[in-house]
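Support request, please re-run this one:
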Amino acid sequence: MNSLDRPSIRKLFLRFRDSTLDTKVAISVIFVGAVGFALIFAALTSVILPRFDALEQQTADRHIQQIQTALNDHAKGVETSARDYGVWDDSFSYMQTGDRQFQDRTMSVSALVNLEISGMAYARLDGTPVFVRWIDPENEVDLPSQTAEFTAIVKSIINYQQVEKTESLRFYARVGGKISAIGAARIVHSDGSGAPNGYVVMARELTDQELSEMTQLNTKLSLARRKPAPAIALDTKLMHIAVNVPGIDGARLGQVKFSLPRDLSVLGQNTLLLAVISCAIVLVFALSVVRTLMRKIMITPLAGIQRHMQRVRDSGELKPLVGDYTKDEVGSLTSDLNSMLRQLKDLRERLEINSFELGRTESAVGVMHNVRNGLNPISVILSKLESERPLVSLDDVERAHNELQDPNTTQDRRVRIVQFLKAALQATVDAGNKRHADLSDAKICLNTVVELIGKQQASAHRKADMQRCELAEVVRQNEALARFSASGNIRYEVQPTTIEALGNRLLLSQVIGNLFSNSIEAITAIGRNNGLIEVSFQEEDGFAQIRIRDNGEGFDPERGAKIFERGFSTREQKSGGLGLHWCANALGMMNAKLELVSDGPGLGATAIITLLAASDHPQDAEDKAPPSLNDDTPLEAEVLETQNRPRLYGT
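Re-run finished. Output below.
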């Protein structure tokens, strides 16, 4: 069979050898491209998808653990309440004397409602109930049928093998067709003397709403069925998860069900679309193969073209290639090369236009960068508000109120109580004012983000609009963002001014926000505990300047020429380097200029923005280059010192 195939293979090889260069390249690229695509799809399918599935499984396991923790905490709270009553001496006395007043006072409907429990019982050590009650906390009425079920549960606790080996226990049980957490504790003297004389049992119904609030998930409780739902069921968009609710003997009482979106799985599937991007890898590989073929097939005729291109490169003269060449692909290449050389001047002129369009593309990246900077302070404010606790407890206020109503309270004591209530009220008012101020700052930050997004959408397909911008207002807007984005003690001093300049308000705000972020990073990087950012303004010869000076790490002045290059960063561990490069391009779209100067490492840096002054130029002013900046211009005028608002702590 091999001998029969050899002539055919040789014939195909000869046809390939005698074909045109375009045919050879096409066949090579198609073959390499097919192999490359196959390898890429195989790699994506075998590596990325399983990892995304594993991440999705980890997410499900984490939420299952969260549900189990919430169930345990709910039952533990009931157990804790039972233990509190178990070590109460009045409970011990009640089991001995059967005090009716204690029973009416402690186990009345209103008492159970105040305890936020659904059922309560006292039983002897042999499991005989002394008193059992189950209520409807919402309507504050007894439920006899549920009381009977609860009585049976109380009797069955004595049969639990661990009940005599522990002071208390917790479990879940079904009462009235609903799942409730049960806590039981032995009744003993508070000082530990004497032998236990009974059990106190408490129960609290578990609702969908309560479990959802504890887990921040949309959960639903369902009673046990013959065939339990699978722990995790998958469909195209959701993971349906069921977590068992165990009873005292470990049997399944019911299930907590909830659903999670399969974002990671969908993301993993979408990642397969990266096969399109892999065309670049295929192209590089294909070009390498083509280059090898070119060297073997066309090295001699291309040598003359190479020598000519070297002369063009060395001399800079765009002279066409002169000589006699065949009419094959090499001759066509020579003709196209001469045409390309003639058009090179036009291409150079169009380069600036293309650079401008590139800047518009990078502007979108800059907007997302600034949106992130705008959302960071909102997260800080909300986290701070979430961590705040009441300054004065309600119990203290109620105690003070009761003492005021008590006729036996002395006048001096009354005066002190009134002073305490006034102080508590003032502290609450101050805390509310501070919270209102923080929320106002958060509102400013959120409005800034919304404005960035809205204006970016409106201006995405047109040139930057120029309008009169009040410089101090733009700076104050970004100062609110920067103050909450910074970690540590950083002080801001902003010179008051009414100077206006011509520019695009959105782009100018983004540039100033980026410069504030760079200053914060520079101060943080050097580890200063007294960070300072100073902003001053100056108007001269038809131009307006904004100077942003920090006392951060600074940089070597000799590296100033590279500071605006894309990807350049003054810190070795810093990734990205897009900020200053984008800022310079954005200001260039507004006929403005950005300079960054420093006296050296550790001596801080000053960013100088030069724009057309609105007082000397109409809004449609012709392009005018900013003047050279004097790096020694002093920072003048008085400054506004922004201080952190005082925080009132409760004791």
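Confidence is low (pLDDT under 50) at residues 348-353, 573-578, 628-651. The two ends are 96 Å apart (CA to CA).
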